[in-house]
Amino acid sequence: MTPPGPTASPAIRVALPQLCDIDDLDRDRAIALLDRADAVHAVALGRAPALSSLAGRTVVNLFFENSTRTRTSFSLAARRLGAEVVDFHAHTSSAGKGESLLDTWATLRAMGCDAFVVRHADDHAVAELARQTRLCERPHSPIINAGSGRHAHPTQALLDALTIRQRKPDLASLTVAIIGDIRHSRVARSNLKLLQLLGVGELRVAAPPALHAEDLPAGVHRFERIEPALAGADVVMMLRLQRERMGAAQVADGSEYFRDWGLTTERLALAAADAIVMHPGPINREVEIASDVADGPQSVILAQVGNGVAVRMAVLEAVLGA
Ligand code: NCD
């Protein structure tokens, strides 16, 4: 489907105090964000002139973990709404001298920064920062979670839902299979919550036993082999082995993993004929996904990346009351 042009404007605009988790959304708000993201899609991709809804506002990227897609797309999203962007580099900042996250926030806030996009390795650091800032300030400066530990990555879930909805609007009829390192994945946790909220028909997760998670929502079907999880699926979402979050020797090496769990053309044939293949990136080719699948006709991986800018525009507008 071709998303609507830049002039389209959905009837409902959403106001959000923060976005730390999918729990900050209800179904109507989630849908309103997706509608707005569709409406600004051409602007998000640089195919229509930038908007000015955030002119005079400043957005800070506060990243304490590596990022390519999320960080760049938040920067582009803010700029394409007319905002200024500050990129905070944790490894060259006073965070390395022991300054707390709250003091770092207060320092940037004192320079007139309005919204804080935060990525952190700790599961609860972003939500805790949001709680602390609510206690100590007026007016409010919204916190947006750009990935916290294994816990939550709400804007990734929104961009994934948008990518699915653009291609398969009847969400209730869909079977979505999330496959790979579920245990360490904030992407899986946020996607399961959001896709349930949006009423997706069937949700499956598949992983080797050591990479399964115990904290998944009720109603999600669990598989310990890839083949039955793929059978008839409409959406196949592959996850990276997140070795940086693993203890010693939790999983086999890359080639063994690929043999048992890699998404190959042969395995993909088990899914619905028109299934789409997703991956949040970064991809490890020939570990969780074969190159010809990642680059093949069913892959929507680069569409996900573009949708990341659009969704983050919608979220920045919502938290900054534009
Ligand atoms: C994901 C993340 O950082 O959680 N990537 C992303 O944001 N696009 C997934 C991953 O790192 O594997």
Question: Which characteristics define this entry?
Answer:
322 residues, alpha/beta, Rossmann fold, 2 domains, five-stranded parallel beta sheet, four-stranded parallel beta sheet, 12 helices, disordered N terminus, binds N-carbamoyl-L-aspartate
Task: Characterize the structure shown.
- The protein is of the alpha/beta class.
- The chain has two domains: 143 residues, Rossmann fold (3-Layer(aba) Sandwich); 151 residues, Rossmann fold, CATH 3.40.50.1370.
- The chain is built from twelve helices and nine strands.
- A five-stranded parallel β-sheet has the order 7-6-5-8-9. The protein has a four-stranded parallel β-sheet with strand order 2-1-3-4, sandwiched between helices.
- Helix 5 links the parallel strand 3 and strand 4.
- Helix 1 packs across helix 12 and helix 3 crosses helix 12.
- The two termini are 27 Å apart.
- The N terminus is likely disordered.
- The structure holds N-carbamoyl-L-aspartate (NCD).
